[in-house]
Design goal:
36% strand; alpha+beta; 113 residues; single chain; elongated; 4-stranded antiparallel sheet
Length: 113
């Protein structure tokens, strides 16, 4: 077993930061973030919701940081995006393209490196 194999468990915790562009102008960021957060909480999803806004104060993006157990970073990204799209659809939040997606190992404490 090499070092790489010994450091990666079959299932790892991944931190996935993802956001989607809001497709309708005039929506308030705080309201969208609150709604996404409540939706995730009701379903037991580990999500810290976030959003950005344009200079005029309207929502530009909606998303957040997920903590996801998965066998690979790709599966973690798929889970995060699928949930975010599902949530926006269920909450009638019109979204478009992906604005950002970043995935990192979430079960490694950098102080231990």
């Amino acid at each position: 077993m090499n070092n790489r194999e010994s450091s990666v468990k079959r299932t790892s915790t991944w931190e996935v930061r993802s956001s989607l562009f809001v497709a309708l102008p005039g929506l308030e960021t705080a309201e969208l973030v609150s709604r996404i957060g409540a939706y995730a909480s009701e379903r037991g999803v580990d999500l810290v919701p976030a959003g950005t806004h344009d200079p005029d104060g309207c929502a530009r993006t909606v998303g957040g940081t997920f903590g996801i157990e998965a066998e690979s970073p790709g599966l973690a990204v798929d889970s995060a995006l699928n949930f975010l799209i599902e949530a926006c659809d269920a909450l009638d939040i019109p979204v478009g393209e992906i604005e950002e997606i970043v995935v990192e190992r979430g079960d490694i404490d950098p102080r231990d490196l």
